Amino acid sequence: MPHCDPVGLVHSLESFGSVDGPGVRFVVFLQGCALRCKYCHNPETWSAEGGTEWSPEKLFQHVWRYRNYWGKKGGITVSGGEPLRQMDFLTKFFQLARAKGVHTALDTAGQPFRPDDPAYLAAFDTLMASTSLVILDLKEIDPEKHRQLTGRDNANILAMARHISDLGVPLWIRHVLVPGLTDDEEGLRRTADFIRSLKTVQRVEVLPYHTLGLFKWQKLGISYPLPDAVPPTAEQVRRAEELLEVAKYPG
């Protein structure tokens, strides 16, 4: 029987991304995410249904047309949603890219990672072999606060970060700063301790909370759980960057 490549469900494509990895990036947003972050700015990507079907080959052929924009520093980033929910498709797509010498970045929150599943780990390691960079969104270091914030535990996410570090794959760490929710100093210090334990972190970023995605919740008819949240001040961002030791990781 002929081999059938996996089909990916793609939410959207961005041909000229500048904040999703080094250089200019072509960004692929995949459909589906199990986390329910209270500040999510892409709730329309939660559903595992919908999106546009692409084969890895067709998608790469489409993306490859934009290679002249990438220069020596840019490449392809796959985000979401949560791209690890479509790992077979993602692996094939990255393999095609790396065969052409393209820099590949995975933008993930890590929730699907299964550290106690040998078959899953083998598949994950195959993906990592074609991944140039992992951009990991560390939402909250405390497990109970993480459950309150996202609806899920974070033990497997932290395990994934350690596993990626052990594999030698470069890491960028991101943390969304929401005043009164993800900005407590003890939590930021514990996050810094965890980041310091990883061997391959190149960059740490504090992303200020914003309300630009609020209209999406309203459009979907979903009650927004943080009606009183406000973006952090410049001083709050500076303090978080200090606690997370951002300056140690110039990236």
Task: Give your account of this protein's structure.
By secondary structure, this protein is α/β, with parallel strands linked by helices. It is 33% helix and 20% strand. It contains eight helices and eight strands; from the N terminus they run E-E-E-H-E-H-E-H-E-H-H-E-H-E-H-H. An eight-stranded mixed sheet has the order 3-1-2-4-5-6-7-8. Strand 4 (75-79), helix 2 and strand 5 form a beta-alpha-beta unit. The model has no long low-confidence stretch (mean pLDDT 94).
Layout: helices, strands, pairs:
Layout (H helix, E strand, L loop, with lengths): L7 E10 L7 E6 L21 E3 L1 H9 L10 E5 L7 H13 L3 E6 L9 H11 L4 E5 L5 H8 L4 H13 L3 E7 L7 H13 L3 E8 L5 H7 L13 H10 L8
Parallel strand pairs: 2-4, 4-5, 5-6, 6-7, 7-8
Antiparallel strand pairs: 1-2, 1-3
Helix pairs in contact: 1-2, 2-3
